[in-house]
Amino acid sequence: MAVAMDRVRKKNREFEYTWEDFNVLRKLSNAHSGIIVPDDKFDMFYSRLARRIRELKLRDFKSYCQYLDTHTEQEFTKFINAITTNLTAFFRENHHFEYLQKTVLPELLQRNAASRRIRVWSAGCSTGEEAYSIAMTLLENLPGSWDMKILATDLDTNVLAAAASGVYAVERIDGLPERRVKRWFLRGTGTHKNQVRVKPELQRMVSFKQLNLMGDWPMQGLFDVIFCRNVLIYFDRETKQRLAARYAGLLRDGSCLFIGHSESLHQLDTRFQLIGNTIYRLK
Ligand SMILES: C[S@@+](CC[C@H](N)C(=O)[O-])C[C@H]1O[C@@H](n2cnc3c(N)ncnc32)[C@H](O)[C@@H]1O
């Protein structure tokens, strides 16, 4: 069936692309990033990678698979960057930020009163909207004298560069309350009039770093909160289980882990207890 479908589709494509090519590419992606690529991502892989094939002036997907094999060092990051899914938004799944503000931060104000220090990790941060939303929530609700830092990591180097620049198309802040826009964003002028930039105060709080969740985690010290939202969905059960255990090892007791709206730690053996809609607490 897949082969028959493939033949039909091939006719309309700029580059020849087979299920064999797709299988090579998804296996490579899975081995490196842990991301499971289901059959229905066949077309998505074509559209994401056709641009690379055009840029490299290659003949077809088979040549691209060979190129990846022989030029791994130059091409692998670009391959991974092309196939990651980076959908995100400021204050996405806003109930998490409300819980952070109303429940977690008042607790941390007491628990960390001696150190006056807060550490948060945004794992799979994409273009940075999640990390900056956390920074806004912290700065709006905690004394400015506290030492507050957010580590924001992703596998994809393109999104990290965009995140660190702090520059967004103006539509990205549609729907944010005016008081937030005024307080935290600078509007571009002239040729940048369709852009906004987050204020330096927010940028100073967030460190963007490349980190593959499948690899080593060089962080030392514990976090008070971890956001790993809309990332687990791409992983198999064993990987989720392993990640949950690693997150547990990096959180202070009683701290919260926020995951994405279609994700769950249900049926995994973890030290986390579900305490709200996709909100977990380390027992
Ligand atoms: C859909 S975005 C989620 C962004 C943000 N957390 C949110 O919920 O709005 C998923 C991000 O996970 C990243 N990602 C996927 N696999 C990863 C891995 N193995 N290590 C680190 N990041 C990964 C992708 O590059 C992508 O930017």
How would you sum up this structure, described in words?
Helix 4 packs across helix 5 (72-83) and helix 6 crosses helix 7 (129-141). The chain is of the alpha/beta class. The protein is 45% helix and 19% strand. Strand 7, helix 11 and strand 8 form a beta-alpha-beta unit. It binds S-adenosylmethionine.
Please specify the SSE layout and strand pairing:
Layout: H1 2-10, H2 19-33, H3 42-55, H4 61-70, H5 72-83, H6 94-111, E1 117-123, H7 129-141, E2 147-154, H8 157-165, E3 167-169, H9 178-184, E4 185-187, E5 195-198, H10 200-205, E6 206-210, E7 223-228, H11 237-250, E8 251-259, E9 272-276, E10 279-282
Parallel strand pairs: 1-2, 1-7, 2-6, 7-8
Antiparallel strand pairs: 3-5, 4-5, 8-10, 9-10
Helix pairs in contact: 3-5, 4-5, 6-7
Please supply descriptive tags for the structure shown above.
globular; alpha/beta; 3-stranded antiparallel β-sheet; 7-stranded mixed β-sheet; 283 residues; binds S-adenosylmethionine; single chain; 10 strands
